[in-house]
Amino acid sequence: MNKLTSPVLIIAAKEICDCSRNHWMGFMGSIFLLLSLSVTFAGSAVTGSLYLPDLASLMSSLSTISVFIIPLAAILLSYDSFVGEDESGTLLLLLSYPLTRSQILCGKLLGHMTVMLLATGFSFGLTAILLLLIGEQYQASELIAAFAQFLLSSNLLALTFILFSYIVSLKSTEKAKAVGCLLLVWFLFVLIYDLLLLTILVSDLSFVNQYVVNILIALSPTDLYRAINLMAIDGGDARGSLAMISQSDWGLAGTYALMLSWIAVLSWISHGVFKRKRL
Amino acid sequence: MNEIPIKLTDIGLKYDDFTALDGVSFEVESGQTMALLGHNGAGKSSLIKIILGLITPSSGSVNIMGSQGKLSHHKHKINLGYLPEDVSFYDKLTGREVLNYFAALKRVRPTRVADLIDEFGLGYAQDRQLKTYSKGMKQRLGVAQAILSEPGILLLDEPTVGLDPQASKFLYGKINQLKQAGCAVVVSTHELSLVESHMDTALIMSKGRRLALGTSSELSAGSSIKTGIEFAELASWVERDHYLRRFFIDGRLQVESAQKQQMIKYLVSQCQIFDFTLHKPKLEDIYHDLMMHPLVDQSAQQ
Q: What sequence ranges are listed for the domain ABC transporter (chain B) (predicted)?
């Protein structure tokens, strides 16, 4: 740590060290790996035979499961970032140091993003390597591009939930309240909103045209994540409501831009909340 | 140079309709230790946060090492050490890693960390995670953190709470060393008997207002607590001396602070008594007295 000179890098390095010591990285990396290997190599078992799925089906299956797991992992990683330091007295101490609040926020964000990237990169990267070695039907460039895209979108989704966690953590007075509130956010965005959106899509309501669908997708980072991954594989084998998501007019670049807008807005809110936090 | 490290003038702090601080003024000079005393919620922590530049007062002026105005803009230039109350450092890191982390943030050279680990007797545990440290070890680490940059101002919030007498003695020894090196030290504490022999001045707060400020003698003079005087055969002296009898209460002579010199002079010159014991009011007694009779101190503030 003392070889680094930038406060942002020093704080990031400390966060990475903390996450590796408390076994978050090892535990979540193992969960992601187990999930990724199960979906890839045992996903076909439900059909009564074992075979490697085609790339589109594989990415679709992986993203369908990741949309639940990645936000949860991001929340567990960062829910106590500020309320934890506040409870232990180190937040007050850090603020007495020659640091700005932006530096503290950026340092934590960089550290948590690196941890998330390492955990997902290791597990999904290892799956991609195994597929390259074992699966003869895959084209190396396509496989690498698909996994790189999947990793990028997964980490952007993680970033949005890390920022949600920061806002809640900054607003909370106790760790337990923070984790409770964040589980509610996860429940609303990942389960309820998603389910409501899919219900609206299949219920054939007169006012629901593609324009309304586009807006509804843009209002949830998890649905943007679904849309990104469906579009990246040209709709894949998406059927029914998922096919409507993949037909969103935003386009892949537009959907990424919307995801980045979410990140920008959440970063701005986090910074504002931190700046106004009463000590 | 010779600027006063800490100078707060007529500080007021309001949160909506709650007044946290009301017209508080004090200064701490280099090489001086000020004890910041008061009940819970008296405004001690708010004062420390104002010195740290973490909150801006609603009124009054703050001058820290010559920097005035909004301190958050100046804290990069001020060499200040701080130990928060009951701080719990990162349990998963080792003692050395914690100090290295804070040293890196203050751009302090790593050799200073090694020196402090030795100085604070933490060498044997430097590579152990903090969760294995005792309260005393954590507190020593906390003080080492606070003095990493050899600060000109040191703020300690309850540094000895929960420590055994040996550990408290060690910490105050370190504080005295820093004081002698010219550091202005502010110690917020409820342990009055411990801080008494190490402080130069004390600021006593109550409900956001300054009750008293001064040295032990000045505080004593401002309180209604009397100085006790005892010597051999006091009872027989009191029987035959009308003057002494006026001051004889509860088995000893009790005189107001202002009368002390006069009484000593009387004992030495009139009674030829040279061997007597003075019982000066303890800080704890003065504190309780000021809390009970705050108005008595108004003159001492002037």
A: 6-232
